[in-house]
Amino acid sequence: MMRTTLLRTCQALALTVLASLGPAMAVTVVECIDESGQSSFRDSCPPGSIKKGEKRLRGNVSPPTPVLSEIVAKHPVTLYSIPNCDSCELVRLQLKARGVPFTDKDASTDGAVRKELQELLGVEDGLMNVPVVHIDETILREYDAAALTAALDKAGYPPEPGPGAAGAATSAEQASQTADEAATTAPPIPASAAKNSPAPESY
Q1: Three-state DSSP class for residue 136
Q2: Percentage of the chain surpassing pLDDT 70?
Q3: Which of 74, 99, 130, 167 places its Cα 20 to 30 Å from the Cα of 145?
Q4: φ, ψ for residue 65 (rounded to 5)?
């Protein structure tokens, strides 16, 4: 009974250590018998005791959550927009409310951005609708709050703004700004706006 209690105590302590070290770490504990015949579990047997056996314990710990900068580097968010676009502004509000850094590209006057958008959408010429949000393989061709949330979830963005979240729209020219300069607090998106999104803008 005492041996079982000691082993459970040792396992609990070992798992506590494993949780702090990471998912791939493991520890080995040994059972030691002292001169009086008493058992104890340690990382190594002290002088005068005999090693009876050992047990390897591995922690079942979830992998650490990636920091925001790593997510942004692997899964950048790009918004293609034009001025005076209500649905484009709703995209900005939702991204800022979640603390997601993004690049905002004006497709109304920049020929390079327009060409980039045409290639992204697979169109050669003619009218195009905005907003367009590009995240990995996902291309959203209008403002859809649920679809945008799903795309951000899939990319691994945290559901709430975390430490270091820029949360501000950044254009190509603003990309070199510091996080403090770019950080902003976005107002909540009105429920009515999320349910009754304006139609995409053509240009």
Answers
A1: coil
A2: 62
A3: 74
A4: -75, 130
Contact predicate 54/29, CB 8 Å: yes
78-82, 125-129, 164-168 — which is least confidently predicted? 164-168
Does the structure show a pLDDT above 60 at 18?
A: no
**Count H helices, E strands: the chain?**
7, 10
Most confident of 164-168, 173-177, 195-199: 195-199
Domain boundaries, the chain: 2-58, 68-202
Residue owning tokens 């390079």? 112
Neighbours of 103 (CB within 10 A): 17
User: Cα(127)–Cα(97) distance, rounded to whole angstroms?
Assistant: 30
As given in the structure block, the two tokens for residue 26 are 């493991």
Distance CA 201, CA 203 (A): 7
How far apart CA 165 and CA 174 sit, in angstroms, is 16
Q: Say what the pLDDT of residue 130 is.
A: 93
Task: Round to whole Å and give the CA distance between 37 and 155.
Answer: 57
pLDDT at 15: 47
- Measure Cα distances from 117 to 24, 31, 81, 84, 103 in Å: 43, 66, 10, 19, 13
Distance CA 102, CA 75 (A): 10
Q: Architecture of 68-202 per CATH?
A: 3-Layer(aba) Sandwich (3.40)
